[in-house]
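Table S4 entry, EFMT2 methyltransferase.
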Amino acid sequence: FSPSVLGTREHWDAAYERELQTFQDIGDTGEIWFGEESMVRIIRWLEKHKVPLDSSVLDIGTGNGVLLVELAKSGYMNLTGIDYSPSAIQLSEKVREKEGMSNIKLKVEDFLAPSAELSGFDICIDKGTFDAISLDPSDAVGKRKLYVASLCRVLKPEGLFLITSCNWTKEELLNEFREGFEILDELPTPKFCFGGRIGNSVTALVFQRK
């Protein structure tokens, strides 16, 4: 990928500072990455596969925290969101407060250098964070490897990893996560047709840690 400001912390700090101000002004929670249907897809999959409601869930790059709120509304009780942008965590705290979801844990954490207490999760969810890391102007390849290593550290053996991406195809993600993970499922996502070929604009996969 070409390096992009979308891969920098400065960009996300500025973006979430704007969203935080907007929320304080008019109560708008801001953008939902990949739209609401992406959250519905994840929750439906968890429900269909009877994933226990007391499973510990980590939302990697939680942003405004709306996914965690929706998981809480669906009955999930052990929810943690992290983001390396303090403004994102401030925003998600305000969204949590507005929705009355006091049981959601939120922390400023850089997933590429996770603290020791960030471990033992049953489920990790990523909606766009791996995409952003892949665009980092400084050593994106190294940071992708760090991401996989961090995922192995924080996710229990046989734990589930649900990733939604608009930058990577299924085959590319299988290659990126080949060390320590195996694919369990592919979630249905919108398809498009271009030049006689059909493709997916978004890829959503479920991996299991070996």
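The first strand starts at residue 56 and ends at 60.
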